[in-house]
Amino acid sequence: MNDAPGVEGFHPSVHIPVMLSEVLALLAPQPGEIVVDGTVGAGGHSREIIKKTGETGRLIAVDRDPMMLKIARSVLPQENCEFHQGSYANLPAYLAELEIQQVDGILLDLGFSSDQLEDQSRGFRFDSPGPLDLRFDTEFGEPAWQYLQHVSEEELADVLWKYGEERFSREIASCLIRLRKTQTVVTAKEVVEAILHGVPTKFQHEARRHSATRVFQALRIAVNRELEQLEKSLTESFPSVLKPGGRLVIISFHSLEDRMVKTAFRDREQWTCLTPKPLTATPAEIRMNPRSRSAKIRGAVKL
Ligand SMILES: C[S@@+](CC[C@H](N)C(=O)[O-])C[C@H]1O[C@@H](n2cnc3c(N)ncnc32)[C@H](O)[C@@H]1O
After folding, report:
1. Which of 8, 84, 164, 273 is a Cys-bridge partner for 218, taking CB atoms 3.0 to 4.6 Å apart?
2. CATH number of residue 163's parent domain
3. Per-residue pLDDT reduced to its tens digit, 134-182
4. Domain check: are 41 and 96 in the same one?
5. Is beta strand 271-273 parallel, antiparallel or unpaired with respect to 296-302?
6. What whole-number distance in Å separates Cα of residue 112 and Cα of residue 184?
7. What are the E-state strand segments in the chain?
8. Whole-model pTM?
């Protein structure tokens, strides 16, 4: 269990950082280095990184979610950490503000944290009673319930197929469009019920994962524009701010992201790949932290 202290007005962090030793081995933070944690969350990885960069090192902690940044601020030493709320894709602008030209390492631990999952107001949990939001930054963009109000059935089916690889995308899209005819602000619970109407019972019972998992993933990717953020970072933002010899380490939790990272690291002009095959969690870690089951880590050195 993470021993992060609670933040006033927030529950204590319940997030356990995944594959910590593998991250540290690939990122190899050294004393005096500047390292960016682009998805700092509750600071689980960062706390170990700054032990390695030491008193002369600096950590730039970025997160889109003000709630997570508040938790990170409470667990990380203020002296050698800079905190920035926003997307990691805009890293060059944050570094320019700090008058930093280049950094030695960047870590991304994609997706959402267990703390966000537990926050009932966000809708990440299937049984959340509040409106289905699914945004990391609730001040930016539109919540999922609002998106579901105006998206066409065809576009929704495409989103579920493309971002969720959901085989019953058309059937589920039709059920979600029907739901909006009776309800304006939909909750996570109501969306789950509508999804189940679109999935044949036989498949609901056979599936290893809950039938709503892929749909929630797709809606989350859509409202946060997650793949655009990653693409921009891999091709523009990170190559421009990483020193030659600097390391980029990315933990992803689904095949769409992992495929993008794998493809980018194959580009010999910018990167030397450190992981011909992605690293995955050991059976012991999966037993201790089931969330690590789908984690894949890839690392590369900037040429
Ligand atoms: C899996 S958690 C990170 C957990 C962290 N490594 C730890 O050990 O506590 C992912 C975090 O990334 C943040 N996030 C997601 N997309 C982001 C983006 N484009 N830019 C910045 N932060 C983002 C989420 O708000 C969340 O806090």
Report:
1. 164
2. 1.10.150.170
3. 999 999 999 999 999 999 999 999 999 999 999 999 999 999 999 999 8
4. yes
5. antiparallel
6. 26
7. 34-37, 58-63, 81-85, 103-109, 242-252, 271-273, 296-302
8. 0.94
